[in-house]
Amino acid sequence: MTYTEILQNQRDYFKAQHTKTLSARQTALRSFKQMLIENEAKLYAAVEADFGKSEHEAFLTEWSILIKDIDEALDSLKNWTKPQKVRTNLVNWPGKSFTIAEPFGQCLVIGAWNYPIQLSFAPVIAALAAGNTVILKPSELAANSAQCMADIVATYFSPKLFTVVQGGIAETSALLETRFDKIFFTGSPAVGRIVYQAAAKHLTPVTLELGGKSPAILTPSANLSVAVKRLVWAKFLNAGQTCIAPDYVFVHDSIYEESIALFKSTIANNDYQLASKNYVQIINERHLERLERLIAKEKVAHGGKVDRNTRTIEPTLLRDIGLEDPVMQEEIFGPILPLIRYTHFEEVLSYIQDHEKPLSAYLFSNYQAEQNAWLDQLSFGGGCINDAIMHITNPNLPFGGVGQSGTGSYHGKAGFTTFSHLKSVFKKPNIFEVPLKYPPYTQTKMDWIKRLLKFS
Ligand code: NAD
Fold first, then answer.
1. Catalytic status, residue 243
2. Residue 235 CB partners (closer than 8 Å, separation 6+)
């Protein structure tokens, strides 16, 4: 079947009102949950085959998040789908005003490879909750996960509601030629631009979940051992292949050496080995080579070894990194952590402001004035004070970027809203007619209008 035919079938199904009722949405979400539960082991095996991700991490960062997403949507859907009354202004009195969250229609979800199941399925769950039909195009780089998702989705869903299309650049480009009602893309800013341009041809609304360099700042007032523990976990989870991983850390000069020692001992304690299942592989050779080039041998404070056989890179600390070094010119997206010395907090904020708005930012400080300055001066998608990554786990916090790190957001109610159009409706009774808006226009009418609108 061609993409156009798949899409036409979805369009017909949507037009016949099969996706919109509360019960249809609940049924879709329950099927999704059943699919995840009955295929939990298969999904873990697929991500392990792709890049050695353990069941522990797959449960924590993929499967459990999706189950929680579905449960929240099922609990809240009745509330989210209810028409929301708003105040009617004086000019329109008497009457009623309300908004209805209506589905866009046919949605295209394009996924990234680094959390292949979660990043593909989470937007789909939101789209189905909002009453849409969906075509999912997972990343071809996590091929086992993509195949597994395609297989199980075909078993549990009619392609008229939800189907998976596999492929790389050629297939995605062909899909993007087709007219969708909403496109949700997760991936790099470079491809985000391509998706945005393709969507513009059809004036299709898009959500772009992109990446970039997410900065962390480690200040003297931080609880150092706690901060380093959290930073190490956040950076080396998924071998740094996390869009919201701290890309680099500014460390205050007064705690620089002590911090490096702590980073080293914390890394050693965490036993980052593929064999112990505490670590994962780099997704492919191309990324392994790209990352290897970013390791300046003379600046390695810890790690630095690249193993081609296992496709792994040791957790690597780079010390005395300058802002002009190659590792500071691109998103690292791997297990390399540059530690940059700083003396003035304001200079750090100024550097971050002079660069693209990051997807995430992290501040480790117990000094209120620093927290305020960081919050007031920096623009970023989301972030944490005295932690890293964990903001993503709260469904009440919309997740998304700003500027080059993305546009739009999802998770929890924000996901439902992202896949819904808010239709505004004014309902007027027939009993009462204010004559002021109708011709013939007179001075008396004008005077009354001005009085009513409080212009005089
Ligand atoms: P990518 O942009 O290379 O690929 C993403 C998707 O786009 C894939 O499905 C791929 O098949 C497709 N694609 C690739 N090239 C294309 C082209 N020329 N035309 C059309 N489609 C194309 O990204 P990636 O390598 O999968 O992921 C890494 C990037 O994604 C990083 O920048 C990371 O920060 C970002 N990311 C962001 C989030 C987020 O939630 N904001 C999550 C994960 C990853």
1. yes
2. 245, 246, 315, 335, 337, 388
